[in-house]
Structures are given as C-alpha cells and as structure tokens.
Amino acid sequence: GARAGGGSGGWGGGQGAGRREGAEVGGWIGERFGGAEGGGSGVVAVRAAGSTTSVVDPSGSERRAFVLGLDIGGTKLAAGVVGPDGQVLSFAVEATNVEEGPESGLDRLFRLGRRAVAESGVGWEHVTTVGIGAGGPLDAASGVLLAPPHLPGWRDVPVVALAEDAFGLRV
C-alpha cells in the first residue's frame, strides 16, 4: 500500500522513475527512460499499427499491450483497462474523498485499479504499463505531485514510485 515518509507530514523526496523523454516518428511513439543516472531501463517504443498496439521492449521482443489507466481527480478516482486496439475493457469510478488525505486516496485508487484489471478479464501478465493522469503542479521527471490545488493536503506525493510499488509495473 501507500506509505508516508519525511519528517514534516510530507512524502519525502528523491523517489521516482527517472527522466523521461518522448518522441513520435512515422507512427512510432518512443519513450526513453533515463539511463543509469536516472534508474531507467533503456528505450521502450510503443507503436500503433492498424487496430493493434504492441510494445517493443529493450530486448527487441514485441508483444500486445494492455494498459491500466488511473486518474486522480479532485472529486473522483477512476481506473480502467485499455486493450491493444484502444478498446476500454473495464472502467471503475469512486469518490476521491480528498479530505482523507493522499495515503487513503492512493490506497483506494490502487484497489480500484486492481478491480478494473479483474473486471477486464485480462490477466496481470498481459498488463504492461500503468498510466496516471493527475492535475498539477507536479514534477514529471520524478513522478511527484507537488501541491495540486484540487487536492488539498496532497503535498510532495511520490505517486509514480508508490504506483510502481503497488503494481510491480512501469508507470
């Protein structure tokens, strides 16, 4: 589950998934995750080919990709699974209850994500990535929500690191 860190009620710093750079060329969308200094994993390319999406990992192998999408809003949390053809296979929503704070909110979001995967009929072995949508301000390079005005009390929350810990997948 989510965990708090830091001495002043914050979530600590320095956690994250490394630097990310993206580019789209000829129908390919590529992301470079920072090298050794960023703790990244090399180059990953995602391409849309007709009605399917596939992932080419650093070893060069290609496979169909399912994505778990998470949304952190001021009034609602949402989770859904999207298939390789872009079809939404499952979608679940519940109230954010922002007054309960980030630990409770993220615990519930991650449970919602697990429920969305279960309801999609897709096995976890086929879910390749988790994507998170959240309003800013945020530090995209480190994956930290800084102090979004629509989420009072959610200050310096390392949402990417927490999601990676919760799901064991790249976020």
Described by the principal axes of the CA atoms, the overall outline is globular
Placed side by side, the strands forming the largest sheet appear as: 1-2-3-4-5
CA-based gyration radius: 16 Å
Number of DSSP strand runs: 11
User: Mind summarizing the main beta sheet?
Assistant: 5 strands, antiparallel
- Average pLDDT value? 73
Order of helices and strands: EEEEEEEEHEEEH
Category from helices, strands and their pairing: alpha+beta
Distance between the termini: 16 Å
Q: Strand portion, in percent? A: 35-45%
Give a verbal description of the structure.
By secondary structure, this protein is an alpha+beta fold. It contains 2 helices and 11 strands, in the order E-E-E-E-E-E-E-E-H-E-E-E-H. It has helices at residues 102-120, 159-167, and strands at 20-25, 28-33, 42-49, 52-56, 62-64, 66-72, 76-82, 88-95, 127-134, 138-139, 144-145. Strands 1-2-3-4-5 form a 5-stranded antiparallel sheet, with no helix packed on it. A 4-stranded mixed sheet has the order 8-7-6-9, with helices on one face. Strand 7 and strand 8 (88-95) form a beta hairpin. The longest helix has 19 residues, at 102-120. It is globular, with a radius of gyration of 16 Å.
